[in-house]
């Protein structure tokens, strides 16, 4: 196979895995790697020099492909732009830079006749993007739904086993699954970036990450986990990207939030740091993919797979256009959460006084909410926990009901309901 010369930005978790895997593919020759600190102790020694000067890679005419495993938005986006203008193909694992700057980067790549490969940016080692892009090419992709963040899935699995959120997060940090600042994972940003990338591939439009509804897992308690199980559910952080219309909406239905998933649903059995994704195509129906969504070698497997694909096609005329998905130059917005319909789980802590259930029924009825199940637990004369499962509710109706509940005189803690979590409804 013809030799292909690579330059790489980053030699952290993923970069280290890439170097390890490249040792078996000698035709993919790493010429230089840019890092922040060349003196740092490393687990691997690449067979090439390290540099802190990214320009040495970008301006090297012999380097045909830039492998970006450095992460972050800035200065990464400008390095990618410069490399594309120098007609280098890009292989990246960076969902954030794609979600925020994808339309511009893909337009620039088209203008300069180069390709951007990004399998590793979503679901790590699971070949999700190539499945959507090539394997399901004959389909109109209707929806992609799933567990797209291994860190939060690990934390929720630990909470289900009886750990508190704080101790599960600490364990995830000690094992290297979670960053010291876990915001991107636990508040849903990471999943939102991945959904934007999935929407680009599946629907032809990146979705602006700041329009995507994000609700993370910080408010989930062990009590919610235990109650969900009693009702036959497991709580998962799900990301959904669906074409408008599937749920009575216009526009794209793109969102990330905790969800009660029925115990017998395939996504309920995805545990620990794994990812699990349902892809629905109009012809194929539904596929389920489950596997390692992060980690050194699983993610490097996706990066090096991209490099091998790219190397195999590099000498063919006009190959870049064959690999590039048709993505619109203008990003789309996600539909507002008010317009989706799904059942809800609601946990309320109320004063244990007569008539509370009747008052709850009145408030829900006034907002078109029909209750499917209600239970009350508590010691007489003290606070009681009321758990309500509803039938399908519009987001705006549930929000209005919650606002009215917060003004009522029967909540045990003023202005505080326990929790409101959506229940799975196929997109
Ligand atoms: N980790 C995963 O499991 C995983 C899974 C899927 C996708 N990804 C994506 O892969 C990318 C890399 O993640 P990672 O976990 O490998 O990150 P990481 O371990 O933090 O490594 C980042 C690397 O980039 C280098 N770097 C940072 N800023 C730089 C700069 N300004 N100039 C030159 N080098 C710089 C660092 O240099 P030093 O080594 O000198 O500090 C380090 O080698 C991210 O986009 C991430 O979202 C990661």
Please describe what this structure looks like.
The protein has 14 helices and 18 strands. Helix 1 (13-22) crosses helix 11. The protein has 427 residues and is of the alpha/beta class. 46% of the residues are buried. It folds into three domains: 4-126 and 296-323, NAD(P)-binding Rossmann-like Domain (Rossmann fold, 3-Layer(aba) Sandwich), CATH 3.40.50.720; 138-292, Dihydrodipicolinate Reductase, domain 2, CATH 3.30.360.10; 340-422, ACT domain (Alpha-Beta Plaits). 34% of the residues lie in helices and 24% in strands.
Descriptive terms for the model:
427 residues, alpha/beta, Dihydrodipicolinate Reductase, domain 2, Alpha-Beta Plaits, 10-stranded mixed sheet, 18 strands, 34% helix, elongated, binds NADP nicotinamide-adenine-dinucleotide phosphate
Which ions and ligands are bound to the chains? Answer: NADP nicotinamide-adenine-dinucleotide phosphate
What is the fold-level CATH name, i.e. the topology of the largest domain?
A: Dihydrodipicolinate Reductase, domain 2
Which CATH class of the largest domain is shown?
Answer: Alpha Beta
Shape: elongated
How many DSSP-defined strands?
18
| Helix-strand category | alpha/beta
Write the CATH homologous superfamily of the largest domain: Dihydrodipicolinate Reductase, domain 2
- Cα distance spanning the termini: 44 Å
* Percentage of β-strand residues: 15-25%
Share of helical residues? 25-40%
Biggest β-sheet description: 10 strands, mixed
Low-pLDDT regions: none
Into how many domains do the coordinates divide? 3
What CATH architecture of the largest domain do you see?
A: 2-Layer Sandwich
Average pLDDT works out at 94
Put simply, the count of helices is: 14
The radius of gyration computed from the alpha-carbon positions, rounded to a whole number of angstroms, is 24 Å
